[in-house]
Structures are given as C-alpha cells and as structure tokens.
Amino acid sequence: MQFDQDLQSIQEMRDAVKRAKEAQLTYMSYSQEQVDEIVKRVAQAAYSKSLELAQMAVEETGMGIVEHKKIKNEVGSMAVFESIKDEKTVGIILEDRVKKITEVAYPYGVVAGIIPTTNPTSTAIFKALISLKTRNAIVVSPHPRAVKCTVEALKICQDAAVQAGAPDGLIGWISKPSMAASNELMKHRDVNVILATGGGALVRAAYSSGKPAYGVGPGNVPCYIEKSANVSKAVSMIVDSKSFDNGTICATEQALVVDRNIQQMVIRELKNNGAYMLNAKEKALVEKVITLTHGHLNPAIVGQTAIKIAEMAGVHVPAETRVLIAEESRVGKDVPFSIEKLSPVFALYTAEHYQEAKEYCLKLLNLGGRGHSLSLHTNDDAVAKEFVLEMPVSRLMVNTLSSIGAVGATTGLMPSLTLGCGSFGGNITSDNVTARHLINIKRMAYGIKEVSIPKPSASTKKSAGDKQDIEHIVDQVLKQVAPKGEVDAKVIAEMVNQVIQKYKNN
C-alpha cells in the first residue's frame, strides 16, 4: 500500500536525521586540517567513479548521455573541491587587526538535500562535499526516478568520508523516497537548512518550511546572437551546449533570438551543425509532444535525443540530427516552443532590430526563467554591458556554452550544481551556491572609537525635578491632613499637579 510506503519512508528519514545529528555533533570538534582531508578523499572517490555513476544515472532515469553525465560528475566532485579546498570554514576565518574584528565560522548543523532526476549523481556529490567542508551533516531525499544512482553516489561519499576519519552517519539518505518524507524532512526539528534543487512546487515547499533554505528556480534561458557575433563559432557552441546531456542542465539555452540581417547565416550554420529545421506541419506535431496539457512540459521528452522526440511526434529526421528547431514569433504558456523544454528542442525568434531582440529575451525570462541565466554571443562589449545591466538574470554567459558555462566549467564562475536566481526569481541568493553558503559567521569586535555621551539637558533635569517636587508635596499634605492615611493619595496628587501646572503657565 502507498500509505505503508510513506510510513516506511518517513521512518527511514527520521532515523537518518537522528544519526546525522549525532555525527554532526562529533564532527564539530574536527580541525580544518581534518575536515579538508575528508573532503579531499571524498572528492577523489567520487571522481574515480564518475563513469560508473553516469552509466547508472542514464540507465535508471532514461535521460541524458553517459559521456556528458560523466563530465557533470567530474565537475561536481573535483572541480567543486578545487574551488573550495582553500576556504577557511573552521574556527577563526578572519582577523582584521585594523578594525579589531575577529570572524569565527560555525555550521548550520543538519542539511536537508533535495536532488533532481535530471542531474542526480553530480548534484548529490556536490551537496555532500559542500556540507562536509563546512562541518555540516546532510540527509538527502533523492528523486523517486533516480534513487539507485543517487544513493550509490552518496554511499561512495559516505564510505570515503568514514575511511578518512569522519563519524559514521554524517551523510544520510532516504532509499524509499516519497513526497511525504521529503516534506517532513524539510520541516524536521533537527534539520537546520535546506538545499533544494528541483521543480517549482518543491522549491516553494522548501521556502515555506520555516527553515533557512536555498531553493533554485527554473531556467528558460534566452540566447541572443547579436549581429556582431562570430556566427560560425557561436552556433557551433550553441548546438554543443543545447545537445549536452540532451538539455538537462537548467542553464541550457531554450530559445534563440537572432538579428534579421544574420538570420540566414545562422540557419545555415545550424544545419551544418546537425540542427533540423521543422516546417509548419512538423512544428505542429512536435508542439503536441512538448506539452500534453496547457503550459506544462511533457516529462517524457526531458533528457531525450532530438531523434527520439521527433519519432514521438511522428516526424522523420536525418540520423545525424542533434537539435530540433522551429521558427516562432509568440511567447506564452500556450506556445510550447517558448517554455523551458529540458531537451534538445529550440525556438528561433528573428528580431527586426536590437530593441525587439531585447524584448524577446525579456518576455522569455518573464515566462519562466526570471533570475536564472541568459546567453549572449556578441563582439560588442557595449551590448554585453547593457544586457547585464538591464536583464533580470543572475548570470550572463558571453561567447560560451551556457549549459556548462553557468556551472563553472567554461567560465570563472564558482563550480556549482545549484544556481540561485536571486530576488528576480524569488530565491534567497543569486550566487552559484557553494560552501560559503553553509556556514554562519560570528564576530568579536573590540571598541576602536571613543564616544562622549552627552549629559542630560536642563529641561530633562527640570522634568525629573518636577516629579520629585510633586511627590514631596503630596507626602507633606498627607502628613498634615490625614496622618492616619484616610485620604486618597491619588486625589491629593492630582490636586497638587493641577496647582503646579497653573503655576508653570503663569
């Protein structure tokens, strides 16, 4: 019964959190050197299994390409390690002798990690590493369609960590995941922070859990090929990026926007790089496969090849086809080619002028990718600066593959499998999430400025004196009029106060 499955899942989650909390309390006493050695050994172990984990992920989920998932596993392990290995995350991390401020790092405690089906092993490795680096424990809820490969990745990390001296239980997981268990994990009293990567509903649940949360929104990445771009080079990178792991990275280009005067050149280069241009009839058939209901992506096409998607739609394409492209002019939830597709399927928008190109990009972002990413190919630095100033995105990739550039593989951005969308996308951060997001910092500050506290003014003294005068007069009146205390003191006080007010007014 499903009910029994939920109960088992919830109990397994509770047991994992209990073990993680106990292990984390022990881990708190570890030095920076001990932590760094554990993180290094875990990264190396995961890296060495990159291919096997990639094969497991493709076999279990039916999504993506083994060789590409291997690269993502390598980024999630050693590239992430190289980016965080020198960061101080234990004890005193900064001493400012001029300002006399000392900063001390301390962990959150237990991290709840939610893992997507599109990047199951690489994201699991990445979240385990940044948790270990910051002396946190982590309990992971895998996607139900990617349980085996996610748990295997976590076991590799856990075994390597224990062999390097980490307490057992520091990395935990739910082997029978359910939505009920995921929701309760995020609300568990012993969970201190959430790292949520997944669909919009899951991210909203993370932010409404009452816990600190790093949730990341969807990406509907526009890719603008501006007239000054090197079209041949740009198109080659775009097709490579769009077909990388069959489009499962959220930063992958979703729609092309091109200037009218280079449109034909772009189309020619797209065809030269394995793109298939759908005619009007074929476009209509593919639209029915992209969305089965209004505005909702058909999960069956996610991570599939262009050829398979074409077959699903009843469209015959050449064997060398890498991406499917249809010309489009509208943007909206009722326009299947304009939404985030997580597959090698493109919309192609032709802009009559620069301003219209910007408008297309903005409409696409507003449809479902605000705050995430935008891809730009141009040789005009002024255009790039204008885009980064005006577009509501957290990262702008220029003249590179957007999919892997956003995660730090081809750019100087921080290697990460969790890309924040900032306030544009309703997220708490616009950063590529990494170890620094999983530590708190307490500060010790010495006094460095002399301050002269002003004495009370004459009016303040007079006010205080008036109060004392009233109390003294009331006391004297009571002693003379009613030595035994029969008279109401409040009445006398009010009478005296009225007399004093009249005296002041005169």
Descriptive labels:
Aldehyde-alcohol dehydrogenase, Ald_DH_N, 3 domains, Aldehyde Dehydrogenase, Chain A, domain 1, alpha/beta, single chain, 17 helices, five-stranded parallel sheet, Aldehyde Dehydrogenase, Chain A, domain 2, 506 residues, 46% helix, seven-stranded parallel sheet
Structural write-up:
There is one protein chain. The protein is α/β, with parallel strands linked by helices and 506 residues long. It folds into three domains: 2-217 and 435-445, Aldehyde Dehydrogenase, Chain A, domain 1 (3-Layer(aba) Sandwich), CATH 3.40.605.10; 221-413, Aldehyde Dehydrogenase, Chain A, domain 2 (3-Layer(aba) Sandwich), CATH 3.40.309.10; 460-505. 46% of the residues lie in helices and 17% in strands. It is built from 17 helices and 17 strands. It has helices at residues 2-27, 32-48, 50-61, 66-84, 120-133, 147-163, 179-187, 200-207, 231-243, 263-272, 280-290, 306-313, 354-368, 381-390, 402-406, 458-481, 489-505; strands at residues 91-96, 101-107, 110-114, 137-141, 171-173, 193-197, 213-216, 221-225, 253-259, 275-277, 291-293, 296-297, 323-327, 345-351, 371-377, 393-398, 439-445. The strands form four sheets. A seven-stranded parallel beta sheet has the order 10-13-14-9-8-15-16, sandwiched between helices. A five-stranded parallel beta sheet has the order 5-4-3-6-7, with helices on both faces. A three-stranded antiparallel beta sheet has the order 1-2-17, with no helix packed on it. Strand 4 (137-141), helix 6 (147-163) and strand 5 (171-173) form a beta-alpha-beta unit. Helix 1 runs parallel beside helix 7, helix 2 crosses helix 6 (147-163) and helix 16 (458-481) crosses helix 17. It is globular and about 115 Å long. The protein starts with a helix and ends with a helix. The mean pLDDT is 92.
